Task: structure prediction
Amino acid sequence: MTLLHSSSLLLHLVALALWLGGIAFFLIVFGPAVHELKPGLGLKLLNRGRITFEAVSWAAIGLLILTGIVNLVLRDQMTGGHLGQYYLTILSVKLLLFLAMLVHHALGVFKYGPKIVVLMNETAGTTESWPEPLRTHWQKWFMLLKINAALGPIVTLLGLALVKR
Ligand code: HEM
Result:
């Protein structure tokens, strides 16, 4: 394996750690911690965390796609264009699941994110509860994150299956 190939694989792993690690941190650490705070402050911090998480995720997704394409081109060269049925099948399933994760992320950013911002602006900073429909929109945003948290490890295993070939 060339230095370029192993560097691209390493960057690929860094990118997935950034995205999947961010999802895990948000679900296991940040989300529960924010719920311990007063709703007004909690909502503000959660939204600030969402904006940062989404920005970091876009950077990781871009790096995954870039290094993924480089991985594929170099593997294709390595095999003289004979990737084989097994490799192509695994890669197809992996990219389909990646696409599903991308759609979930985009829904969170472009569908629920803007609604959360509008409703946050209508919510007093001193609110004593998580008002509806803001709570529902956060629940839907978190549901998409949980689905991606379930898909991430599957895509990772499929990626490992590619390299083992
Ligand atoms: C959530 C998204 C993704 C995850 C979790 C993921 C995970 C992985 C993992 C763990 C590996 C093995 C790395 C190693 O053992 O060094 C891998 C390899 C690979 N990934 Fe991904 N990947 C993702 C997205 C993508 C995308 C978007 C593409 C294509 C555009 C891609 C193409 C590849 C290829 C071609 C390989 C095999 C490289 C080789 O044959 O040497 N991956 N991926």
Notes: The chain has four helices and no strands.
